[in-house]
Design a protein that fits this description.
Layout lengths: L1 E5 L5 E5 L2 E5 L21 E3 L5 H4 L2 H8 L2 E5 H8 L6 E4 L4 E4 L2 E7 L16 E7 L2 E5 L9 H7 L4 E5 L8 H11 L3 E5 L11 H10 L3 E3 L6 E4 L3
Parallel strand pairs: 3-4, 4-5, 5-6, 10-11, 11-12, 12-13
Antiparallel strand pairs: 1-2, 1-14, 2-3, 7-8, 8-9, 9-10
Helix pairs in contact: 4-5
């Protein structure tokens, strides 16, 4: 089984066979996540999809307090190395690596990626994580792309973390198509409600998911759930 803890926006702590993997930590600057104490977050790995502030804000602090291995593209890893983070593993699009918790593939995303000081953050991406506990797709910030069909052809995806806030990323309609492309009926929604531009009507998106016969999970900040091989 895979335990998922939600820290707001696109930040999730995913525990796979006892290994804690943190995705895109934007917590301390997020007014909606003030109840989350980042001093208590001690992951083994931190996976970063792209360089925008609302995905990397707490990386440096959490990496230094935990000693976690930072996994991202070459440009983002290099940028954090200059900040004194030395436990790193750079990747790039199409690359796959076996880690202790499972196999990770860095896949395409259509977005942009500039780091907080305006340094180039390389090309944005997402991750497919394959493990004995289950397989999932973390899309990062992305538009709908036909490349997602390749994920469905290669993997048996149990669930997918997909952005649904629209404006900067996919909205619910494209997210439902993305779920079809990757071959899953279970969506964990992310990248919504944090800013005025991406506020959603939860009732309306929930109905669209129901009509498409998809399970759309919208977690409360601080909530935990179990997915994968239960």
């Amino acid at each position: 089984m895979i335990e998922i803890s939600y820290y707001g926006h696109s930040a999730f702590l995913v525990t796979i066979g006892g290994t804690k993997v943190l995705f895109d930590p934007f917590i301390s600057p997020n007014a909606m996540a003030q109840q989350i104490d980042i001093a208590q977050i001690m992951p083994d790995y931190i996976l970063i999809s792209h360089g925008h502030e609302d995905h990397v804000a707490d990386v440096e602090r959490i990496a230094k307090q935990s000693g976690a291995v930072l996994v991202s593209n070459f440009e983002i890893v290099s940028w954090f190395q200059k900040k004194g983070i030395d436990q790193v593993h750079p990747m790039n699009h199409g690359g796959t690596k076996q880690f202790g918790f499972g196999k990770v593939k860095y896949v395409n995303a259509v977005h942009s990626s500039t780091l907080p000081d305006n340094s180039p953050g390389g090309n944005p991406g997402g991750f497919v994580v394959e493990s004995a506990e289950g397989t999932f797709y973390f899309a990062g910030d992305t538009a709908l792309t036909y490349d997602m069909k390749l994920i469905g052809e290669e993997y048996n995806v149990d669930f997918a973390f997909l952005p649904i806030g629209d404006n900067f990323t996919m909205g619910i309609d494209d997210a439902l198509k993305a779920a079809d492309f990757v071959g899953t009926n279970t969506i964990v929604g992310m990248h919504y409600d944090t800013f005025p531009y991406i506020v959603i009507d939860e009732k309306a998106v929930g109905q669209k998911a129901k009509d498409a016969q998809k399970e759309l999970i919208l977690l409360e900040i601080g909530e935990k759930i179990i997915l994968g091989n239960k």
